[in-house]
Phenylalanine--tRNA ligase alpha subunit (Actinacidiphila paucisporea), 373 residues
Amino acid sequence: MSAPNKSYDPVEVEALKPDAIERMRADALAAIAAAGDLEALTHVKTAHTGGGSPLALANREIGALPPQAKAEAGKRVGQARGAVNQALAARQVELEAERDARVLVEEAVDVTLPYDRRPAGARHPLTTLSDRIEDIFTAMGYEVAEGPEVEAEWFNFDALNFPPDHPARETQDTFFVEGPDGGSESGVVLRTHTSPVQIRALLQRELPVYVIAPGRVYRSDELDATHTPVFAQVELLAVDEGLTMADLKGTLDHMVVSLFGEGMTTRLRPNHFPFTEPSAEMDMLCYVCRGESVGNPDRPCRTCSSEGWIELGGCGVVNPRVLTACGVDPEKYSGFAFGFGIERMMMFRHNVEDMRDIVEGDVRFTLPFGMEI
Ligand code: PHE
């Protein structure tokens, strides 16, 4: 009977000999150290720790050894695998740090470099001013109303109580749209003011009506320093029970204070418009000299030519004939309206001397208004 095979020689399992394991460990560590980037390291990892790697294969042989040799070989292989995994993890951290540092340099953006940007355009200062005026009134509960620029003569003139032979209907003032036969009998004009929006608002809306209507208007004027055939107006209309000229005055004063600051005021001078009765020309206190240049040769004012007042536009109490034309009972309702040109307002608000600068669309004009294009 033979004794237990205590002297079973593990040398028979080549792969588990100490120097073989040592070589596997050394090979793996050398390959890890040689991996130049994360991709190479992934391959090294598969080759030296994957299922088919020498250490994994050696590990599989351990089971065949007798207990003592098994423990020793297991320890050796385990240590070798531990060392390899540790080296892998350490190299991984190193290579990641290298990659991050490289990416930071390679993908850095120099935000101070000059760049090539196409100007995107910006709102015109005229639009901004018009919006500001709109804001003042919407804050008081007014609604913004609109109407077409190509308007029926009836809205532009008739409903506003212009008699058929009123001079404003002449071609020297009004652009008529050609009729189908090339004549001027189309009954359609380019609106000469924003007042037709009054009619549209009264016909379309429930009473009371409080509207502000900014918009473009047309008159057959030559373009010069103070005229342009296309310009912008703001129209205001309030129709309610019991409105009077006093409400109009208070509203105008509030507007000029909001636009030009405390202490500003307006004054009314008699005038005539077919659609308001009584009608007035509205002036505002000169916002530069505040009236102090009047009769004071030591303090001349260029803005108001030392008159103390600047003409703004027209206004008045809505003519009962207009209310009637819109089906509103003038016994019950009354109202007020005003209208003025925004270019003019912009000219004295910003010391613009030539109206052509406003309409020509040159960015050198708009940029000083703080526009970014
Ligand atoms: N529509 C008039 C104009 O263009 C201004 C105006 C509006 C006058 C409203 C009175 C009331 O001159």
Residues 10-106 form one domain. Residues 247 and 328 are 19 Å apart (CA to CA). The pocket of phenylalanine is lined by residues 193, 195, 235, 273, 276, 313-316, 337-339 (CB under 6 Å). The chain has two domains: 10-106, 125-369.
